[in-house]
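so my prof wants the structure for this chain in the tokens format not the other one, which i didnt know existed until like an hour ago. anyway here's the sequence
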Amino acid sequence: MRILFVTTSSINGGAQKHIRDTFISLCQRGEEVYLIAPKGWLTDELADYESQLYKICPSLKTQKQLVKIIRKIMPDVVNTFILSAGVMGTLAWRRVRCGKLFVTVNNQVIYEGISHVARITYPMFYRWMAKYVCAFLVKSDSVSDEVRRIVYDRVPVVSIKNGVNFQRFNRNAEFSDLRAEFGARPDEIIVTNVAALEKHKGQRYLLEAVAQLKDYPVRLVLVGDGSDAEELYRFADSLGILGKVSFLGRREDINNILANSDIFVLSSLHEGLPNALMEAMAMRLPCISTDVGGIRQLVTDDKKGILVKPKSATQIKNALCLLFNKPEMAKEIGEHAYIYIYQNFRQECVIDELMKIYSDY
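here's what i got, hopefully its the right format
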């Protein structure tokens, strides 16, 4: 099958990691896959597939290029990622009408902090795209319900999964000791958060929770970068916990960092189906997560993790205390989480499901 992916962002984010892993897996299966994307982290990650990459940012200015590329490739499937790419990709596809058109929706359409104008225009864009797509592909049941309401059930809305590469995220593999790099003492419990340092990822509440843990030797490791980085650093300083927090910035060795961690916390205010949480669960870590978006598709019960309300430092603190005080329970949670992710989210199974969707719709 000849498949064309289209995105307007190549940053190091969850959607882009999903594109990278899906692109590589499809190529390894023998499918013919191409990508239109701006230069950046994503295109760098796929440098081994240079001849299959078109490094442009889809926009109104590049519509002629998009149309030309689609006509050249003549794909069986065009799959867009991110709303702006959905709009631009649909505009170009309308000119050619070659192959099936799918639009992937990674996160909620309407979320906290979105502007009033966006609350009106975003649903309008989805209703317009619904005239042309074979299906919207969504990452969680909650987003699926939202998209169905927005497009009035005019076209199929199909839930898809992110996949986990268990060769990379394998707790039994050999990993280097990073505790010295973390600045952690031998007795400190490593609590890790992997996410962009942006307000909607909620690290402020995680920092507040750590500040309340005065009776426990805790080292908080924040992995990621973003526009909120400096503010979070100052906030940690104002709480008097800067000595307990390690800001690692953007990293490629997430598996190694998770292997050196004791607990994982996702503090987001909204999410789709987050790769970071899935990878932590695959690494057998006991996880605490805010109860948002598609999280309940991963933490389906209290045997697989602990759910807390968003924006609640107190609930994060209480969950951490529970895991600190009951290490056997923490270990059992990590094991149950691993089994569930392995059985349901292995990359190979996810790709099989995606190919069936491409064929059936």
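also thought this was worth mentioning. The two ends are 14 Å apart (CA to CA).
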